[in-house]
Amino acid sequence: MFPLSRLIRSRDDAVPARGALVAARQVGLVAGGRRILDGVDMAVEAGRIVTLIGPNGAGKTTLLKVLLGLLSPTGGQVLRRPGLRIGYMPQRIQVDEILPITVRRFLGLGGRFPKDRLARVLAEVGCAHLLEQPVQSVSGGEMQRILLARALLREPHLLVLDEPAQGVDVAGQGEVFQLIARLRDRYGCGVLMVSHELHLVMAAADSVICLNQHVCCTGQPDVVSRDPAYLKLFGKTMPAGMVLYTHHHDHRHDLHGDVVAFEGEGPPGRGCPGSEAHRHHG
Amino acid sequence: MDDFIVRALLGGMAVALVAGPLGSFVVWRRMAYFGDTLAHSALLGVALGFLIGLNVNLTVVILCVTLALVLMLLQRQRRLATDTLLGILAHSSLSLGLVAVAFLEGVRIDLMAYLFGDILAVSHEDLIWIFLGGVLALGMLAALWRPLLAITVHEDLARVEGVRVTLVSMGFMLLMALVIAVAMKVVGILLITSLMIIPAAAARRLSSTPERMALFAALIGCLAVAGGLWGSLTWDTPAGPSIVVAAALLFAVIFSLPGAALLRRLRTPS
């Protein structure tokens, strides 16, 4: 049934632009006299993977929490599509030993859902064998999958993942990002994630937002990775082991197959004007 | 058996049946000290009840809820840690209660009965209060069970999934206030938290699900009440403290059981 409220609310300016599931408009946050977010503009659209990167203390998790409605911004506006269902995977979850709870019960805490959905989701994330185990006994990587399952059980329009590959070994990390990309294709949901695994992220994301209190630069991964603001934050050197997953388009091939240097061409992206002049702590 | 012993048993077990499941949440949510603080403020509620001539159970609930709300507000500031705040509130409210009681003119309050309980003096009217309060508390707990469990495991996650966190945690505080008011007569305000925490902690070893832990906590609490009363009558010891000692003994026994085989038997659903 098409909700009438959406018709009415679509004229409301508190609804994000068409296609966007959630958007930040000039969002700022000051806590304890410290400016954590400053004039952040961003949006996540259905079917797209947006990744937040940035140094420690850049406000990545804070921005996620503001977008989720867990924190109120002190400036600007957060717009959410009406009726938006979000699947959230928090950064770290540790259930006290004193609470006896199995993985099955843990998954059930997210809400009611039909039984066949559980089997399907578990198969997708690959943790069906853990179902009857105490939550406390699973490994860090398994816990990430369980959290992902709990998010997916809600059949979310938007998946919000805070460092989904945390506590997963390097080989497993690639798998996690592939899984996320697959889930996006399958569910058509938008994905917003924070990650430190820069180069894995670069391979999986449709667009990257480089955050350091404000948005330093944003765009497609290969564009961002050459942006002066990005280079200033993360440097040019990349860990050797990560090369497997990266593809730097620092050249292109002309009609004869010869290598031509890339200069200012390529997919559109935008860096913030004068980004060199910004002060980056980190 | 004497009438007063039957009343004591009934009242004590009714309290234990509620304190066990609620105590499980107190233990899971690491709110033992919080519970203690609420209980300490109950004496002020008692004094208030006498002062304005309202039912004491009612004023205790009102005061505990007020204190819980004050604490929620105070927690918003970051300068003082929660346990410091709790320490301040617990002891100043208890002292304020003692001072207020001293100011009451013409009323002699049996202070020891409120501080350490007077289960052998439970009257028919008390029993009715305990049963009504207990049923109400259990009903509320059942209604809040799943969202409360969800915010216990992870508050932010629960909030994103649509749980109204503030409402649920306020409901939980109201429950604690209710149980404190009801249990005051049995073990006294200084010992109430023990009746919530000790049986729940003991039940952990026997349980593989939250519900089972709540159930076992209730049963262990009942055993402690029976054991404590028996000990109190046998050796002429104070009843409230005897119940707490019995609970502690049960806890010690369950935790020192050689357990693997026992645990497996208890954990596998039959």
UniProtKB/TrEMBL annotation, chain A:
ABC transporter domain segment(s): 22-237
Any Gene Ontology biological process: zinc ion transport
Pfam families: ABC_tran
One example GO MF annotation: ATP binding
InterPro entries per record: AAA+_ATPase (IPR003593), ABC_transporter-like_ATP-bd (IPR003439), ABC_transporter-like_CS (IPR017871), Metal_Ion_Import_ABC (IPR050153), P-loop_NTPase (IPR027417)
Highest classification ranks of the organism: Bacteria, Pseudomonadati, Pseudomonadota, Gammaproteobacteria, Chromatiales
Protein name (record): Zinc transport system ATP-binding protein
Keyword match Nucleotide-binding: yes
Domain of life: Bacteria
Annotated Gene3D superfamilies: P-loop containing nucleotide triphosphate hydrolases
Keywords noted in UniProt: ATP-binding, Cell membrane, Ion transport, Membrane, Nucleotide-binding, Translocase, Transport, Zinc, Zinc transport
Keyword ATP-binding: yes
Species per Swiss-Prot/TrEMBL record: Ectothiorhodospira magna
PROSITE patterns: ABC_TRANSPORTER_1, ABC_TRANSPORTER_2
TrEMBL record, chain B:
Major location category of this protein: membrane
One of the record's GO cellular component terms: ATP-binding cassette (ABC) transporter complex
Subcellular location: Cell inner membrane; Cell membrane
Pfam family, one: ABC-3
Transmembrane segments: 7-28, 48-74, 86-107, 127-145, 165-183, 189-206, 213-231, 243-263
Gene3D superfamilies per record: ABC transporter involved in vitamin B12 uptake, BtuC
Keyword check for NAD: no
Protein's GO biological process: response to zinc ion; transmembrane transport; zinc ion transport
Topology in membrane: Multi-pass membrane protein
Highest taxon listed in the record's lineage: Bacteria
InterPro entries assigned: ABC_BtuC-like, ABC_TroCD
Keyword Ion transport: yes
Keyword field: Cell inner membrane, Cell membrane, Ion transport, Membrane, Transmembrane, Transmembrane helix, Transport, Zinc, Zinc transport
Similarity remark: Belongs to the ABC-3 integral membrane protein family.
Role, per record: Involved in the high-affinity zinc uptake transport system.
Protein name: High-affinity zinc uptake system membrane protein ZnuB
Species of the source: Ectothiorhodospira magna
Organism phylogeny: Bacteria, Pseudomonadati, Pseudomonadota, Gammaproteobacteria, Chromatiales
